[in-house]
Amino acid sequence: xxxxxxxxxxxxxxxxxxxxxxxxxxxxxxxxxxxxxxxxxxxxxxxxxxxxxxxxxxxxxxxxxxxxxxxxxxxxxxxxxxxxxxxxxxxxxxxxxxxxxxxxxxxxxxxxxxxxxxxxxxxxxxxxxxxxxxxxxxxxxxxxxxxxxxxxxxxxxxxxxxxxxxxxxxxxxxxxxxxxxxxxxxxxxxxxxxxxxxxxxxxxxxxxxxxxxxxxxxxxxxxxxxxxxxxxxxxxxxxxxxxxxxxxxxxxxxxxxxxxxxxxxxxxxxxxxxxxxxxxxxxxxxxxxxxxxxxxxxxxxxxxxxxxxxxxxxxxxxxxxxxxxxxxxxxxxxxxxxxxxxxxxxxxxxxxxxxxxxxxxxxxxxxxxxxxxxxxxxxxxxxxxxxxxxxxxxxxxxxxxxxxxxxxxxxxxxxxxxxxxxxxxxxxxxxxxxxxxxxxxxxxxxxxxxxxxxxxxxxxxxxxxxxxxxxx
Length: 472
Known about the structure:
Layout: H1 12-31, H2 36-56, E1 60-62, E2 67-69, H3 71-98, H4 103-120, H5 125-143, H6 150-181, H7 186-189, H8 197-214, H9 223-228, H10 232-238, H11 241-257, H12 262-284, H13 290-311, H14 313-340, H15 354-357, H16 359-373, H17 379-393, H18 397-423, H19 438-456, H20 459-468
Antiparallel strand pairs: 1-2
Helix pairs in contact: 1-2, 1-4, 2-3, 3-4, 3-10, 3-11, 3-14, 3-20, 4-5, 4-11, 5-6, 5-11, 6-8, 8-11, 8-12, 10-14, 11-14, 12-13, 12-18, 13-14, 13-17, 13-18, 14-16, 14-17, 14-19, 14-20, 16-18, 16-19, 17-18, 17-19
């Protein structure tokens, strides 16, 4: 029997990742908890190979169009691999202190990444739902990884219950789409006429599920607890990799799957975008825990992302994709610094005098905070600028003004972090110099450098984002 490798070429990333998972499981069984760095090394080496397959895979459709490998899927999958590597480098220090550094962390992280892969390549309602649930189940378990922590257990339960509600609503909407169109393929549901109550109800239910996966208002209640409850090593993964699946969900389900109802769901997106921007920004100003501040800031950033989707068209979607990629890079770096503070539940006060304890880390956090504010020439400025310009070009000037207002207001809590790092003295019990380890230090340096490079030389990433929605 001869296996036709060319036939399976679009599936190379999924096949490589599916092969890495049992290999890592065997390594975990062999070395146990005695040598967690061995498991980490095997995982990182395997992810490098998976990243290579993202480029080796051929474009095409499989299983009757239920699975698609295109430029958008390729970019999201490679970004997912990079973010997983970043998270797996940052996480061990915090997980070790929390007593949760086990092989299960890496295995569940890989299952979550596989869910992102499947979601990014979804060409049917069934494939899309399978990918999302694979991702969700892995994340629920990750949040509960610290078994002896009441906070983690509470966060996991809230996340699971609310996630089940969101998934149920989306599944019901998908079933209505299938009943109305007679097909599971997104290319078929896209032609569904928006007239009739059934189509409106389906669009509303689907949008409910999308909003939950994004953490957009009013379906945001799980975000702060899910970020703050588990160890920060879990939170850094939760704050980054799933965002790629959420963006894929928007494109595959809303833009590709129910494009005929765009006028209806666009109005709902506008409401959710403005609500997320306003509530996320205002509540973040009152936070005293680093993880909760980053959680509420993430909700505000989701609002900005949704504005790019509202603008529509290739330019709007490419701006939203660029914003997503830049945001997850900033979020990963911010969590990396917080993890290095050696505090499992890091209060903002633990950032006091960071410049004296570790000048390099303080400078990297400065770059990240300025980028989140949107100060040129950093990547965050360009990401916001792209969204604002496409809003103005498409006639959504009022939305652009609202976005600018809340971006200015949101600068308060980022500037507060900068003030704590550079203008406050360290607390008495935190006078010693931080030693984050060479791996985390190198990754933090790469994080900060990437924000500068993308801000100064954005064309390569911008072209990739535009090509993902271009013809051909």
